[in-house]
Fold this protein.
Amino acid sequence: MAGFLAMATGACAQADSADAGRQVQERSVSGPGPSAAQHLLVVTEDPGDIGGRLFRMERVGGGESGGDPTPGEPGEPGQGAWRQVGDPIHVVVGRSGVGPKREGDGRSPEGVFELGPLFGYGQEPPAVMDVSAETSFPYQSMAPGAVCVDDPASAYYNRVFDPDTLAESAAGAPEWNSFEAMRRDLVHGDDLYKWGVLVRYNDSTVPGAGSCIFLHIWRSPDSPTAGCTAMAEEDLLSVLGWLKRGPAGGPEVESQTEVEPSPGFSLQPLLVQGTRAYLEGLASEGVLPYRIPPSS
């Protein structure tokens, strides 16, 4: 569990500067992306919508690492093209919709974010994960006392870890005033974090920009989150079974669609999330290598 301390996540849960969240969003778009072979594309129609659709997008054409892929319609294989895998998945987002994020605003962040590791209540990952494969995501079993700190004034802001692993934990009170319990089954009696994926939003831990963003199991199809993206357990497991990772130039990997992602591209999946207008803007600017699928 100590390994999670070194990894900042991003906000699921008190407000600071709106500018901080917007800066994180803008950096996300100019950061990771061009070489990824899998995207989880989350689209909401309007800024205040609490529901949306998740599309699994996969690169199916060739190209050299660092090159500009040729945009393609979802489902249109070809040189540098992308395709949609399976049907869209219904998801819920923050109670304030999707947009630039700040702590406590109830909004899910828009932008482009790396994913992982996976986490959960059990000692072993879900059965859909092939842990023997080089491309399998790392899995971290959450300790009973594991937390994600959402106190912007804390040095541990936006970090997931087990406080018992800290050398100073025996010295007195913790150095934070608020946090999220990662073992919700023990604290809240629910399975919302039975399985989840860390979204690497606000990796640089900008105070007040937002913290603790995950993909996880929803409470219900009409219950928004505090800033995460959630879905039915069976849909989340389907997503986990599809996600693969690997270094640029690493081994080619057979996908569920029996199409191999292009050699030379990273297999580090990304979450691409926003309103339709925002995402169509990214596509028109060349940030996204495909057109945004229609809502129906």
Q: What stands out?
A: The helical segments are 18-30, 184-187, 233-242, 276-284. Confidence is low (pLDDT under 50) at residues 6-16, 63-72, 74-79, 247-265. The radius of gyration is 18 Å. Residues 2-284 form one domain.
